[in-house]
User: Fold this.
Amino acid sequence: MIRDYRNAAADLKYQRLAENPQEIPFSFVYDGREYKGFAPEFFTLKDKRTDAEKDKETQTFIFGFSGVLEISVILTHYFSHGATEWTVWFENVSDKNSGIIENMKTELVFNGKNPMLKGILGDHVNQYSQYSLDLTGASFDFSSDSGRATHINFPYFNLEYGDGGAMLAIGWAGTWNANFSSDGENTTYTAGSVNGMKLYLKPGEKIRTALFAAAYYNVRNEYYATNYWRNWFIEHNMPKADKEGNSIQPFSTCCLASDTGLPNSDGSISERYFTWKPSLEKMIEEDVKVDFRWLDAGWYSRPDGGSEEVMWGDVIGTWELDPVKWPDKTFLESTDFARANGMKTLVWFEPERVTYPEDLEKNYGYNAEWAIRIDGVAAISNNIGVPECLEWTTERICKMLRENKVEMYREDNNCNAAVLWKFLDDKEGENRKGITECKFIAGHYKMWDDIIACTLSYGGCGFVDSCASGGGRNDLESMRRGVPLLRSDSDRKSSSLRLSMTTAFNKWIPFCGANTKEKLEELAPTGTSDPYVWRASYLPSLNVDSQFVQDPDQDFGMLRFGLKEWKEVSPYLLKEFYVLTPWHRENDTNDFTAYCYFDPETEKGVLFAFRQESCVRNKLRVSLPFAHAGEKYSFTDKDSGEKIVSDGKAELYFENPRMARLLWIERV
Assistant:
């Protein structure tokens, strides 16, 4: 049965906005005066364009304002889901400075009783903790001030009210804020980006707001809302896999840094021209090939031109292969070998940070003035908001990718850049708070677009890996270009944390990944790998953690088991998602965790159930939320083959704690 998420009431809301731009839910203050919407008495409509495609329509309004600014409003609606989004651009088209622009925000009012706000917090500190807040008579603030948008807080919200609700998202990879307040009947949502922005634009300058999205649903049910959102996200937000426009399908990866026999630092830096081949040959021999071979940090030269043996993070910025580690064309030989054997390659970069700017200038053509630095602050930001810096950085990255036919670009960011952006704003002394961030984030999106165009040009991926020290860059705008191969750096340890994150994060970002071992420390080279850990690790991105030649105790049978079983379940991992037990925090192992994926078209799916380490009960009763009265479903145990048929309910028995069951489910 194909789900129909169309929403006639949401379509009418969009049509009203398209015909009455004065009602577009956006406001700003210009020279001390607030403007709400784009009323004709203040804004001259210079042009309006309509672009339509299947189930989607975009209206672009271009307004003249104050004789100085040109304001472009991009309003898009998805008729297949009743979702609407908007972004606003400001450009100074005059020959003089504009007035002061500040307090740019979007504001929506929702009418309905019993408002509840549901969502998750961000990576780092909060580790995607869930929350459910009664908004009646209350006000709640959320913000991100570090420059890594999805650490600490998370710019996605499920607002339930009346008989339905709205899924709300902010797409901005920098700082952002959101507020919810309600009197129990009317709930106001206010959101903005570039916190504390107050600036004027010089002639020719152009800035943009965040992408604001509101996706309306008309069934007040969290399962319904979750899968409505996941379906819209997959259908209309995820980037494409390749130049043919195919959808991204689940894939597996493996980093070989711990399989070199050489000293390792922070999980990387040890790979060399002579270490990769034994690992790949052993993978082929043992029939445990992955889809992507992953080259992590430490492959590049130092800014002084030397070779770094230990501290990969202290020598960032050259993006040129270290000729000691990778002489001549040895790295290309490794990617050619992988391709010839059915594997692709992804490579790590960190373009938003630099070290030793003067050495980069002397040896690699960098301009040290592009580096944003503060005395006493270790991090130095590479200001890709400067067009010349952006061009230098992008071209060096693309040159390495092109010459070595690297299929996927992986990006990291180990710097809270907001403090550096604000420092540069203040240093200019021109009362232009937020201008550095505006240009930086717009430059970052352009850099990703150009890198994707580069990899597509020779048959590589149409997307990037969005890592920013784990899950720091998973905003909606970034997710239209990237996927998080690792949804969190900390998701490389316990299975209990992995299950906690799956039952929270996967409701919002369907395509994500974790490690496949249980380890005492994130970067330990070895750890536990058994059916329990594997089944807790089955995600669209399967990041295999193994030593193929360096671990004499490597259990290749277990590795084959995990890869084979993951391939069997992977067709369901981007389908509907149902959490069947209460959410548990990382350190709560006293109960069961169960969830299932279900394809409503084939009416088949897979159910995962875990009796966690400290759970004293041995029976769990599950109920399929999508099963209707009179329907029958079969539950077939993957291990024993035992099959039961019921009305969508089943009692599962577990012999021991720390046991995982996998059951195929199908409507009879």
Summary: The mean pLDDT is 97. The chain has two domains: 8-236, 237-484. DSSP finds eleven helices and 35 strands in the chain. The domain at 8-236 is CATH 2.70.98.60 (Beta-galactosidase; Chain A, domain 5).
